[in-house]
C-alpha cells in the first residue's frame, strides 16, 4: 500500500520517474532503500484513508496557526498566503519520501555541477553514488516525520504518515494533537520561505558552493581545485566514513577543510534559525489549540535524545546529533529575541540575507539585536572576536 496524496500546486513527479539530472538514478535510490527500509506501521485501507485526510486537514489548519503566532502585518500575511498557495502538500509513505528526496537532491547536484562546468558522471559512478544515497535515505526515512522541500516549484510539504503513526504510539500521546503539532512544525518552514522569497536561492547557492568540490573530485581528471588543493571524491568519502565511525565526529566534519568551514558555519546558523524557530512556533500554538502540547513536547524531547547502540553510531556518522543541537540553539535564539523585542523584532530576520544571524550570533542573540534592530546600518553578520 502506498499512502500518497498531493494537494494544490503543480504536478509532482510520479513514482519511478527518473531524475533529469544524470547525477542521481532515482530507480537505484529507490531499489536500494526498498531493500533496507521497512514499510513501518501501516493501518488498514479505511484507516489509512482517514489518516491521510486528517494529515491533509492538519497541514491546511497549520497555516492560520503559524501566521497567528508570527504576527505578521496584514499586507505581509496576504503576500505569504499567496505564495503558500503556489506550493503543494504530500502525505507519503517512507519510500515515497525517499523518492522525493532523491529527485530533489538530483536537481541540487545538477545545478552544482553546472555551476562548476562539471560534466555528468559515468553510469558506474552514478549507480554507486545512488546506492549510497539510497542507503542513507533509508536510515533517515525510518524516522523522519515530515519535511519542507524548498527546491521545487512553490515548495512542497511532506508528511510521512507511517512514521507519524509509529511515533505517536511510541510516545503514547493523543494522536490528533500530535499530528497537528507535527504539521505546524513543517508548515512553519513553508511559511519561512514564503516570508523570505530570497531564502531559497540563498540556501541553494551555499549548497552548490559546498557540493561543487565534492562533485569535481568524484570525476576523472577533476581531482584537484585550482592551486593543487585536492577535492573530496568517492575514495575520500569512504575514508571519511571510516574515520567518523572511529572518532567522535560526523562524516561532514571529516570531509571539509578550512575553505569550507566558514561556509558550513553559515549554513549551520541558518538551519539553526529555521529549525529553532519552527520548534518555538509549534509550542507557541498552545494548549488552547493542542491541549496536550506540553506533554507531547516533554515526551518528544526524551524520544529525540534517547538513541543508543547502533542508532547512536548512525546519528554521529550522519551528523544527526548536530541537527538535534540546532533545534536547541536556534530555539534559544528565537526565544531570546521574542522575549526582548517581540515577534515584530524577530520578523526582521526574513527581510534580507544581511539580517540572518551568524553562528556566533545564534549563541549571542544580544549581538544580533544590536546589529540588526539597534544599528541596521552595520553591515553583515558578526563573527566571534579574535582570540589574543
Polypeptide structure, described:
This protein is mainly alpha-helical. It has one domain (4-374). 64% of the residues lie in helices and 5% in strands. It contains 16 helices and 4 strands. It has helices at 26-36, 45-70, 74-84, 94-116, 123-141, 161-171, 175-195, 199-217, 234-246, 251-255, 258-284, 293-304, 309-318, 320-346, 359-363, 365-374; strands spanning 4-7, 88-92, 146-149, 156-160. A 4-stranded mixed beta sheet has the order 1-2-4-3, with helices on both faces. Helix 4 (94-116) packs across helix 8 (199-217).
Task: Note the overall shape.
Answer: globular
Are there runs of 5+ residues with pLDDT below 50, and where? Answer: 5-20, 219-235, 306-318
Total beta strands: 4
Task: Calculate the mean pLDDT score and round it.
Answer: 80
Specify the number of helices. Answer: 16
Instruction: Report the sheet with the most strands, covering strand number, pairing sense and barrel closure.
Output: 4 strands, mixed
Query: Strands across the major sheet, in which order?
Result: 1-2-4-3
The amount of beta strand, in percent, is under 5%
Distance between the termini: 62 Å
What proportion of the residues is helical, as a percent range?
A: 55-70%
What is the rounded Rg? 21 Å
| Derived structural class | mainly alpha
Number of spatially distinct domains: 1
User: How would you spell out the order of helices and strands?
Assistant: EHHHEHHEEHHHHHHHHHHH
InterPro entries: CHP03883_F420-assoc, Zinicin_2, Zinicin_2_N
Protein name: Hydrolase
Pfam families: Zincin_2
